[in-house]
Specification:
The complex is a heterodimer.
Chain A: H1 2-23, E1 26-30, H2 33-43, E2 47-51, H3 66-73, E3 77-80, H4 90-97, E4 108-110, H5 143-160, H6 165-189, E5 197-200, H7 206-211, E6 215-219, H8 230-242, E7 247-251, H9 257-266, E8 270-273, H10 286-301
Helix pairs in contact in A: 2-5, 3-4, 5-6, 6-10
Chain B: H1 8-35, H2 40-57, H3 65-88, H4 93-111, H5 116-127, H6 135-155, H7 161-179, H8 181-194, H9 200-225, H10 229-250, H11 253-261
Helix pairs in contact in B: 1-6, 1-7, 1-8, 1-9, 2-3, 2-4, 2-5, 2-7, 3-7, 5-7, 6-7, 7-8, 8-9, 8-10, 9-10
Classes of the chains: A alpha/beta, B mainly alpha.
Chain lengths: ~300, ~260
């Protein structure tokens, strides 16, 4: 009799052992698609990921939907860019969700805390436009910073879910190898872009341009987030014509009209880059995002 | 279909905010419709936003009650101006309101030429997101609504001149920041429009029922279809208005009235 009971207990325990990893899978909320993609590289099916925004929307502002609050409510971890990029909606979203796990501490992961940002202002002044005191938050187009963030994020996953630490470690090693190989490929391929000048729409390309040794000579927005005036546009037309610019670049979520306007007046091609995962057909993951971005720039460099 | 957003703790505060807005806007909407000045809410909302931007222009901090007071003062000034024009050129009130609207909107753009943070605030003022409403934010609005309703009750239908425009300015300033301009417009106009043939308490009760039905249906649908709540509610408000209109046309008005009131 007792033997039989032991047998059942054993079976029950066995069942639990198989059932629990599924039941305990971490729920992660990613603010932007690039972090959803990175989480997939680092954890695969071991975690459940919800992505809050898409590549075709401006992440400075979002529409409030009930499902967003529900997703943050059940999250064990939120992964966001930080540097005040989501300051307009993330605090409200966390507050409305009432989920203290992700309000601070290990459940709250900001990519900007893991790296140094560029364009960190020496002084904070409204007159300089929509600047972020935490520096420029559009660093998803720097592969080295992405790798540093991947390492920190992997450590965070292991801290929250030690049972799967080995899986996370193995996947990080695998990602690192593939990513470093890819960086070498991209850098070799992008050699013709070195030293070339571009005009940008919003100030969101500084990391990509710094990495590829390209130069930003002007922006359609005279200061970040400030719409252009006619005198600014006039000087931009002259500057673009005079400096043999390679392209006028904007992100997939932005209105292409200002870029096309400048392109018509200067003969410099307007290029729409994906900006994040999902921004065009090829950008299905982080690798595709970088492949597509570099190929689109090379296409106008010929 | 999506059931995960369908939680009282997520939709509850938004629903309460909607009911608060309806409480003052349903009676005010009937006045607005009777006077034929339906764009007044847009104009007052823009003037309130202009007041906030002016306050920031002169160095006021964007957080805190200073901004609310600036918005209310600007809205009251706009209300006073419209009272004066109403008295002076009663036939031209609607085009004057339209002109005030575009002047206030473009005035904000001119002042904001170098201030991007102000433009974020302007957007907040105009678009307001009903889902972000928190219960503690509702307390001052509830107090204000109670005062406005008490004044309306005390004066009955005799809301004339400065009293009407002043009440209207305060109600709009509070509600626009809570739920945004689209919902304010819909809450004012749709219940009044759908009950245009009725009169007296029967009209008010039916209009409140249409409004409440629109907000509840909109919030539930936005959760189930995973769509932005504010825009969804505007459509369900209109839908409830049309259904109510059809019921009123088909059935004898008395029966409808009791069924709605029940």
């Amino acid at each position: 009799m007792t033997d039989k009971m032991h047998k059942y207990t054993f079976l029950l325990l066995l069942l639990c052992a198989f059932a629990t990893p599924q039941a305990q899978a971490l729920n992660v909320f990613a603010c932007e698609p690039e972090w959803g993609s990175l989480l997939h590289e680092l954890a695969g099916d071991a975690i459940q990921v919800d992505v809050g925004t898409s590549a075709l929307q401006d992440v400075h502002v979002i529409e409030a939907k009930p499902s967003l609050i529900a997703k943050v409510r059940r999250a064990d971890l939120i992964v966001c860019t930080g540097a005040e990029l989501e300051v307009g909606w993330l605090p409200q979203l966390i507050r409305q969700s009432g989920n203290s796990k992700v309000a601070s501490g290990p459940g709250y992961f900001l990519a900007s805390d893991q790296i140094t940002t560029l364009e960190k202002p020496a002084k904070l002044d409204r007159s300089e436009g929509d600047i972020h005191p935490g520096g420029n938050p559009h660093f998803q187009m720097d592969p080295y910073r992405m790798l540093a963030i991947a390492k920190a994020l992997d450590a965070r996953l292991a801290e929250l879910d030690p049972a799967k630490a080995a899986t996370y470690k193995q996947r990080l090693d695998d990602f690192t190898t593939r990513w470093q190989t890819a960086i070498k490929g991209w850098e070799a391929k992008a050699a013709p872009l070195k030293g070339r000048k571009v005009v940008v729409h919003h100030w969101s390309w500084i990391y990509l341009l710094t990495w590829l040794n390209m130069e930003q000579i002007g922006a359609l927005e005279p200061k970040p987030g400030v719409p252009p005036t006619s005198s600014h546009l006039a000087s931009l037309v002259d500057l673009t014509k005079a400096s043999n610019a390679l392209a006028i670049i904007s992100a997939a979520y932005q209105d292409p009209k200002p870029g096309q306007w400048l392109s018509e007046r200067t003969g410099v091609p307007a290029v729409v880059l994906p900006f994040t995962v999902g921004g065009d057909d090829r950008s299905k993951d982080l690798f595709g995002l970088y492949d597509s971005t570099i190929d689109k720039l090379l296409a106008v460099a010929k | 279909m999506n059931w995960q957003g369908l939680e009282l703790s997520i939709l509850g505060p938004a629903c309460l905010a909607g009911f608060l807005v309806l409480s003052t806007h349903v009676p005010l909407g009937q006045q607005v419709l009777a006077r034929g000045i339906i764009f007044i809410d847009l104009a007052i909302a823009q003037v309130a936003a202009l007041g906030v931007i002016l306050a920031q222009y002169f160095g006021m901090d964007e957080a805190g009650y200073g901004v609310e007071i600036a918005a209310a003062i600007a809205a009251l000034a706009g209300g006073a101006l419209l009272t004066w024009t109403d008295r002076k050129w009663p036939d031209l009130q609607e085009p004057l309101i339209g002109t005030l609207f575009v002047l206030a909107a473009t005035g904000s753009l001119l002042l904001l030429a170098n201030n991007p943070h102000g433009s974020e605030h302007l957007k907040d003022l105009l678009v307001g997101q009903i889902l972000w409403v928190s219960v503690h934010q509702l307390i001052p609005v509830a107090l204000l609504s109670a005062v406005l309703l008490a004044v309306m009750w005390w004066r009955r239908a005799q809301l004339e001149g400065l009293l009407f425009y002043g009440l209207f300015a305060l109600a709009i300033t509070a509600s626009v920041q809570l739920v945004g301009v689209y919902l304010v417009f819909a809450s004012l106009i749709v219940p009044a429009l759908a009950t245009a043939g009725l009169s007296g308490p029967r009209r008010t009760v039916t209009a409140y029922a249409i409004g409440a039905c629109g907000y509840v249906a909109g919030l539930v649908l936005s959760a189930m279809l995973d769509l932005p709540s504010g825009a969804m509610i505007v459509w369900t408000l209109a839908g409830c208005g049309i259904v109510a209109r059809m019921l009123l046309a088909v059935a004898p008005s008395k029966r409808i009235d009791t069924s709605v009131a029940a």
